[in-house]
Amino acid sequence: MARSEPGFTLIRGARLADPARRRAEPAEVLIEDGVIRAVGNGLAAPPGAREIDAANTVIHPGLINAHTHGHGGLARGQGDKWTLELLLAAAPWIGGNRALADKKLTTQIVAAEMVLKGCTAAYDLYYEFPLPTREGMDAAAEAYAEVGMRAVVAPMVADRTMYEAIPGLHDALPAELQAAVEKLRLAPYDKTLAAIADILRHWRWAGEDIRAAVAPTIPHHCDDAFMCGCAKLAREHGIGLHTHVGESKVQALTGIKRYGRTLVAHMDGLGLLGPDFTAAHAIWLDDDDLKRVRDTGGSLAHNPGSNMRLGNGLFRLRRALDLGVNVGIGTDGANCSDNQNMFEAMRYASMVSKVQTPDPKCWASVEEVYHAATQGSARALGFRDIGAIAPGMKADIVFLDLDAVTWIPHNWTVNQMVHAEDGSSVKHVMIGGRFVVQDRKLLTLDLPKLAREAEAARERLEALNAGMRDLFHRLEPVVASFCPAMAAQPYHIRQYLCDAPGP
Ligand SMILES: [Zn+2]
């Protein structure tokens, strides 16, 4: 669990990653009760301190995943040529019929992968059908607690299916498929709001740094009164509000069709934006949308791997940073981007900013990407004391092995972290001063046992969800033609990469 290691610890011999320097320089780190007390050279070990010899490593703050889904763990590798809308159509198949034990298991898979690849905290939008439950959310939180990560876990909710949310999609289905998708109808929103209120009232994980949040999944999949009810609950409890906004072009067009203005302008009009608000993806946002998020102190969660995998488009990282919006970086769920590797997410974030134009002044730098994946994400999660190795911060520290092949030779630390590292150099991971990964071994979870349990669950769920798989295969041709045809319609926004008039 993310409880702190008691007493003093002194880390000696490591090189400390510092974006202000090209190469990490040696520094010692003194930790007391899981919190960093001092960083510098020549620090003395207090009597009785545990001393850690970290020679030949680079240390950096744990990476922070601004957007993932615990329910995705058991569903990785299921789709190939899937758009976002095909993924949503497949959801009852790849995520259906989960027992309570599966709800914990799927999150354990996600948490184990994240921590083994140098990520120490995550924002998890967790889905249960037909509505969230206290037991289900508790199982997800327990998975993070046992692995030893910090997390924000938000019940992900809606009261409209995709067939109800996208104008014309239901009508495009033949009658027998219309009848079939009507059975997938979600709970009325007052029941779901009551379920969220119950979850928040009984949340027992705050002391473990596993906090709750509320995630109305996609604005137009939720009635306006439902969105406002979610925001009211989040604000009563002082917790985050997180939603997918402008992820696909179909969503952006739906926003205009439904509300006569952009999704962000609509949500702003409802009073949903604020410092506690995170918009995931944000690909199909215009500058006015970005400024609204900036002016209300909100955050964006950039998920470049998922955005490419689902063919959604390319987020304008340079423009968002120039306008002064807080940006975190995420992997998104394993059900749509397969792995949970924050090093890969950083690499993609850098490259996606570079592939959009040959003009390097419109690109994001490795320092900016690294900042987004640490302090930018920390702010999106609402944590003030993670994302940096500095006095007063929690001792969430990743040790990279400088003998690993990606560090031969070690020229430019942050550049190699963003562009060369793939997680294979992660030697130790410390959370709250306590080793969760040591010598590349996860100490808090038995991985071979997890693999056996996951295989048994996979086999059982495959049989249970066979009918839903067949339904998906009948829906697939309709969704795969309707949505791209809709996305071919023009969406008139100016998307400057960097050369627009100033803020
Ligand atoms: Zn997502």
Query: Quick one: biggest sheet?
Result: 8 strands, parallel
Distinct small molecules? zinc ion
The computed structural class is alpha/beta
Give the strand order, joined by hyphens, for the main sheet. Answer: 8-9-10-11-12-13-14-15
How does the overall form come out from the CA principal axes?
Answer: globular
What is the overall number of helices?
A: 19
- Low-confidence runs (pLDDT<50, min 5 residues)? none
Report, as a whole number of angstroms, the end-to-end distance.
43 Å
Q: Level of helix content?
A: 40-55%
Gyration radius from CA atoms, angstroms: 22 Å
- Average pLDDT number: 96
User: How many β-strands, per DSSP?
Assistant: 19
Amount of beta strand: 15-25%
What does this structure look like?
The protein is of the alpha/beta class and 503 residues long. It contains 19 helices and 19 strands. The strands form three sheets. An eight-stranded parallel β-sheet has the order 8-9-10-11-12-13-14-15. Strand 18 (434-438) and strand 19 form a beta hairpin. The protein is globular and about 75 Å long. The chain starts with 7 loop residues before the first strand and ends in a 16-residue tail after the last helix. The site of zinc ion (ZN) has 7 residues, from loops. Residues 67, 69, 125, 244, 280, 332-333 line the site of zinc ion.
Protein topology:
Blueprint (H helix, E strand, L loop, with lengths): L7 E5 L2 E2 L8 E2 L1 E5 L2 E6 L9 E4 L3 E5 L1 E6 L15 H11 L5 H17 L2 E9 L6 H14 L2 E8 L4 H4 L3 H4 L2 H8 L6 H13 L8 E7 L7 H14 L2 E6 L3 H11 L3 H7 L7 E5 L5 H9 L3 E4 L1 H6 L7 H7 L2 E4 L4 H4 L4 H14 L10 H16 L15 E5 L11 H7 L6 E6 L2 E5 L2 E2 L4 H18 L1 H22 L16
Parallel strand pairs: 1-6, 2-7, 8-9, 9-10, 10-11, 11-12, 12-13, 13-14, 14-15
Antiparallel strand pairs: 1-4, 2-3, 4-5, 7-16, 16-17, 17-18, 18-19
Helix pairs in contact: 1-19, 2-3, 2-18, 3-7, 7-8, 10-11, 15-16, 16-17
The site of zinc ion has 7 residues, from loops.
